[in-house]
Amino acid sequence: MVHRELRSGFNSPIAYIVALFFLLFTSVWFFTIQDFFARDTASLRSYFSIFPFVFIVLIPSLTMRSWAEETRQGTLELMVTLPAREWDLVLGKFIANLILLAIILVGTLPTVAAVLPFGDFDPGPIVSQYVGIFLLGAAGLALGQSISLFTRNQVSAFISTAGVLLLVTIAEGFVRGSAAPLFFQRIMAALSLGFHFEDFAKGIIDSQDLFFFLGVIWLFLFINARTLLLRKWR
């Protein structure tokens, strides 16, 4: 399943287009809009801080094919009748998307390497930032893959996933410090992917944030597997 999904991903021009968009946009943002070279202190925090927002486009582009394309082609019904377990199918698609995401993130290393001579960078925070962005991306992939199972075409899967990611990325920022009740602000923070990434962006690995992302990944993969099982029983 992993090989099949990777081959499909590499054969699709969409994967190359969104990867190029991601790498170009984040670099232009960092060097031009954020004007790295005009700053008094050298930091990669502003570079990694934009990733969650660009992921709102990148992640749905990777996951929209996961199940929606199987539904469109009529192969989903065949897949659920295979002797392979539901978890094998779900993890196969997830791992393939995770590999594609990792390859794209490797493409950011030249940007990071280019700025290292301009400051006294500690490798610890950089590792933390990459761990955080990988976990954030993995959580988004699990979410998007589950949403794809409930849609009938790639466009619907893309729009639905992007909408949910937009909500869980920026909603907490709007209510933080507002007139909203404190308990509501805490609930929004607890559910926000963007909020749990903030410490990673600062170079801090907090166990609560770590377990949050792992929990989100497991939850949506579980939903994905259970939904497939229910379809097999129908």
Overview of the molecule:
The chain is mainly α. The protein is built from 13 helices and no strands. The longest helix is centred in the middle third of the chain and has 27 residues, at 123-149. The radius of gyration is 19 Å and the shape is globular.
In terms of DSSP E residues, the strand content is: under 5%
Structural classification: mainly alpha
Q: What share of the residues lie within helices?
A: over 70%
Number of helices: 13
Main beta sheet: none
Q: How many extended strands?
A: 0
Mean pLDDT: 84
Overall spatial form: globular
Order of helices and strands: HHHHHHHHHHHHH
Which value, in Å, is the CA radius of gyration?
19 Å
Uncertain regions: pLDDT < 50 for 5+ in a row? none
Cα separation of the termini: 23 Å
How many individual domains? Answer: 1
Element layout with pairings:
Layout: H1 2-11, H2 13-33, H3 45-49, H4 51-63, H5 68-73, H6 76-79, H7 86-106, H8 109-115, H9 123-149, H10 154-175, H11 182-191, H12 193-201, H13 207-233
Membrane topology: Multi-pass membrane protein
Keywords: Cell membrane, Membrane, Transmembrane, Transmembrane helix
Main location: membrane
What descriptive keywords fit this protein?
234 residues, mainly alpha, 13 helices, 78% helix, ABC-2_transporter_component, transmembrane helix
Tell me briefly what this model is.
With 234 residues, the chain is mainly α. The chain is built from 13 helices and no strands. The model has no long low-confidence stretch (mean pLDDT 84).
